[in-house]
Amino acid sequence: MLEMLIAFIKSLPVWLGAVVEVMIVAIVFMTAVTFLTGVWCGLRIVGKRAQSIKEITFFPPRIVFSDADKE
């Protein structure tokens, strides 16, 4: 897949190939930044209540908290 993408980019004119390469790098970078931001926000939100987590299930996705902090 990667070889086919590189071959396609090399078949383009030089200026267009450079633009496509920059756009691919930008897309990969922004995807990584978005993923890491989501993980960070999730940890910040759950981290405040981490002591009261009683059960975590993945199928169905659910986090069950104890009722101790409702008092």
Short description:
The chain has helices spanning 2-11, 14-47, and strands at 53-58, 61-65. The protein is α+β, with helices and mostly antiparallel strands and 71 residues long. The N and C termini lie far apart (56 Å).
Structure description:
This protein is α+β, with helices and mostly antiparallel strands and 71 residues long. The protein has one domain. Helices cover 62% and strands 15% of the residues. It has two helices and two strands, in the order H-H-E-E. A two-stranded antiparallel sheet has the order 1-2.
Provide the succession of SSEs: HHEE
| Rg measurement, Å | 22 Å
List the domain count as a whole number: 1
Question: Which overall shape is indicated by the principal axes computed on the Cα atoms?
Answer: elongated
- DSSP strand (E) fraction? 15-25%
Overall structural class, as computed from helix and strand content, comes to: alpha+beta
Fraction of residues in helix: 55-70%
> What does the main sheet amount to?
2 strands, antiparallel
List the helices and strands and how they pair.
Layout (H helix, E strand, L loop, with lengths): L1 H10 L2 H34 L5 E6 L2 E5 L6
Antiparallel strand pairs: 1-2
